[in-house]
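Supplementary Note 3. Input sequence used for the single-chain structure prediction.
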Amino acid sequence: MSAVYVWIETFHGKPLPSAWEALAAGKLLADKYGVPVTALVFGEGASAVAAEAAQYGAKKALVSEDATLKDFRLEAYAALLSKLVKENAPKAVIAGATSRGRELLAASAADTDSPMLGDVLSLNVDGSLAAERAVYAGKVLSENVVTGGATTFITIRSRAFKAQTPDASASAEVTTVAPALSEDQLVSKVESFEEAAGTVNLTDAAIIISGGRGMANNPKDAPAGVTGDEAAVWKAKDGFANVIQPLADVLGAAVGASRAAVDAGYIPYAHQVGQTGKTVAPDLYIACAISGAIQHQAGMRSSKIIVAINKDAESPIFKMARYGLVGDLFQIVPAITAEAKKRLGK
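The predicted structure, written as discrete structure tokens, is reproduced below.
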């Protein structure tokens, strides 16, 4: 019997939240096809992760804990995925649209000469497989249809599918598979990991508060002797730390930024939202002092509710915002923070 495969992305033996979203998409597709959804778990702690995948809807699991798969290496993972696809011809292979998910599925799709759909927002099967994707920087939704019986590789956009509520009593049929390549056949080696300072998980955040170029308009005086561009950077950094961050702390939100703010040195690149940064889809996106250039819109257009705070009533961001506040963010945001603290009892 055929199946729908879902790659469960892990790091240091722990699954990423996006993996359960991918599994939800896989289950939806598997139910349409009338086939089981199978979790693919490679590397450290694969058996434990497979048991967890069962709680999120996987009916079967193919696992490999071989030492060659301990850390993600494209050639090892792609070789095994391609081997499984060639041997079992699943209906589809699904993964989250993370950097590794995109890389792995693209490589295996090429290896198996199969079609691939990237950054998918929705899936349906009505004779043929149809997928909705955002194009033209998110301004247009495109429906893509795959015909024929080939395995289709699919990456799904973060938060496009909701992970199902885990069922602690669920179990899956687990099968151990051998790696496709031995260590002496692998060129790359993983020596260590170094955690980057200032990293932020924007992709999985339910609430994001972002600041733009206007953060440099902070009315607080820069320290004596700090002038010009240095003063603007100091003011913006102070605004992010003492105006944006407190509201983020109260709401349990992540802090984002526009490219202009990142390029000006106000905040690290890890916070950048937009075409050249992170693509996000939170439940709530608050844009502070962000004009709404098309490049920024491309990264946050899928947000469920958008709130814009800007002095310029003509800023493009207001055209896509559900709620808009025209005024000084350095007055508005602290007022919102104080009210949120009162209402949330913090």
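The first helix runs from residue 17 to 33. The CA atoms of residues 102 and 210 lie 26 Å apart.
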